[in-house]
Each structure stands twice: as C-alpha cells, then as structure tokens.
Amino acid sequence: MGLLDRFSFKAQAPKPNNDVAASLAPVPTLDIFYGIPTNFNFSATREQAMSVPTIARARGIICSSIAAIPIILRDKTTGARVDPPRVLNDPDPRIPGSASYVWTAEDLLFYGYAYWQVRSLFADTNRVREVERINPLRVSAFLNANSTEIEYYTVDNLAVPNSGINSLVVFYGNDEGLLRRSGSTIRAGAELERATAMYAREPFPTMVLKSNGASLPADRITKLLDSWAQARRTRATAFLNSDVSLESVGFDPEKLQLAAARNHIATELSRAIGIPAYFTDSPTGSSMTYSNATLAKESLLNFSLIPLMTSIEQRLSMSDFVASSTQAKFDLDYYLRGSAMERAQVYEVLNRVGALTPEEIRIKEEMTL
Questions:
Q1: Are 158 and 166 in contact (CB under 8 A)?
Q2: Would you say 144 and 27 are in contact if contact means Cβ atoms under 8 Å apart?
Q3: Mind listing the pLDDT tens digit for each residue in 266-313?
Q4: Is the whole model's pTM more than 0.85, yes or no?
Q5: CATH of domain 9-202+252-336
Q6: Which pLDDT score, from 0 to 100, does residue 240 have?
Q7: How far from 98 is each of 43, 107, 188, CA to CA, in Å?
Q8: What ranges do the domains of the chain cover?
Q9: Domain topology for 206-249
Q10: Containing H/E element for 299?
Q11: CA-angle at 114, arms to 301 and 158, nearest 5°
Q12: Does residue 322 contact residue 328 with C-beta atoms inside 8 Å?
C-alpha cells in the first residue's frame, strides 16, 4: 500500500437504515406505569389469572387461535401476495413460530404491551432477521421529565439500545392490560377457586374442637386434630367423650352460594376479556346453538382476535421488518375457510366466472402432485 493510499478512501454505498427506534415512544396512559423506572405493579398477577378456569380457557382460545393463523405479505398497491421474510412466521428459529405468537398475544392481552428483542439483522437491508420474545416483567421503561415519552428501556435492569441489535420491538396493545384493568375481578375469581378447593378437602363448616377440661399442650392439640382429620376421611360418624365438644363456625358451601358466585365471576371475566360467554362455557352466557355454531369463528374473530391481531400486523408492517410498499397481514382466508362442501361450491362459482383455474384450485387445496 502506497503512502497516498493511506490518505485516500473509496466512497462506500450507505447502508440502508430501516431501524424503527424504540426511543421517544409516546406513552398512551400512565395507568401502566408506576414510578420511574416502571415496575409493573399490576392489580393481579398472571398466576392468579391462570388459576381461574374462565381466564385460562379464554387465554387458550384467543392466543392459540392467533398463533395458528399464518402471516402473509401483500403489496399495498396491487394486493398481490409477496414471499414474506422468515421472521414473520418464525421469529425465533430456536422454537416453533406458534410458540412466539402465543406468548406475544398473551402479553398484549394481560399486560397491554409485548416485547421482542432483536437478535440479528439482514446485512443487505438492515431489517430484522431474528428476535426473542421478552417477558414484560423483565422490561422497564424510563420516561422523560413530563412522563409523556419513553426515553429508553431496560431488560433485567440493563439498558438496551434504542435501535439495532439488542433493541426492543414494542407491540402496543389497546389498553393497560387485563391484569391491571380487571385485577379486582381476577383476584375475586382466584379467591373463589381457593375457597372451592378448601371446601372440597373439608366439605363442612369450619369446626372447632373445644376442650372441656384442662388446657392441652400444643403437641396434644396437634395429635388430636390430625386424628380427627384422618377419622373424617374414613367415616362420617364421630364419637367424642366428655372432655371434648364440637362447635361449628361459619357456613357450608351451599349457604355461601359458592356455585352462584363462581358463575357470576365467570361471566364478568368473559366480559372483561372480550370473549362471548359461551366460548368459556359460562352458565349465564348465551348457549351456542346449531344456527350460530357455523358463525363461531367469525364471532371470535370480530369480538376477541381482531384487536390483538391488528396490533401485531401493524407493528410487523413497519420498515424495520418489511419494505414500505408491503404490509403484513394474518391470512384470514385460511382461518375462515369453510367445510369441504362449502369450499367446493365457492370454487365452482369462481371457476365458472373465470376467476380461478382448476390448477389454482388444486394449489389452494394443496392437491398438487
């Protein structure tokens, strides 16, 4: 290399910059923030929520349905399908794509936010290539002085870049999340489940064994209670001598109306989640009849899935994932496809008017040899 070469340089083509900075993101509501940094002190925990069968069933239906729908890429101008980058349907190559989307949808439902951390970028386009889903409880957001914008994020109390590798892809939900919005109802449901389990173990009012003689030492009391509990598991009839008497305190499950209370909470939680009550088998919800069973998927889509799907679609359509001329969409044709007879009737009409050829129909039905 000559001396002049040391002071000369070759012009290099600038790398495309498609980073969507996570910094200076607007704060839609302070209900999700408690202090700086954020500590996500929600009114209910995920463990409490998932201990309630209604929430567990609703979460399974909503999140699993979203994860089962493939994401396609369409040209904004023509509507034609374009081959999507692998990251759209397989965000983290270490696990199935459905696993990433199940937990992403749950985060949006429970916390109001979902986070992916960028693990690698495409060298030619600088777009996201691989990500890892991050539990929202590991993320903190530091706000500006006016608490109107997020200046930067931390993961496990370590600051992360605002763009590029290790930065966060932030999915905005529609509200502060179920755990905050309906925390009191969730806690009530969890307490009812605990009460039901307690009465299942001891299906009687709280019983007190009272000594009529001298005070018993602690070890004698423990042995007496253990022997009493063991005897009740083998026979219903009990015998007490004059030294001990039995008193009942409280009410039995029937007087407490535990069944009615659980049914009421199940209906309220279905409303809070935004899913028709018959999907969670809530007794007070309208039953699914044959006439509306065929519309069940459309009802679930319109009432429960669309809000979460829209948040995911629009974030994946930003320039750090795909070209600005395209947009990511869930393939609703795949989700809403009817029975074989219904599809055959539709194909017959489309073929008759020249909209689809037999070869295209075979491709749609995966009948290609």
A1: no
A2: no
A3: 889 999 998 988 888 776 555 555 445 557 778 888 889 999 999 999
A4: no
A5: 1.20.1270.210
A6: 72
A7: 29, 14, 32
A8: 9-202+252-336, 206-249, 341-369
A9: Arylsulfatase, C-terminal domain (3.30.1120)
A10: helix 296-300
A11: 175
A12: yes
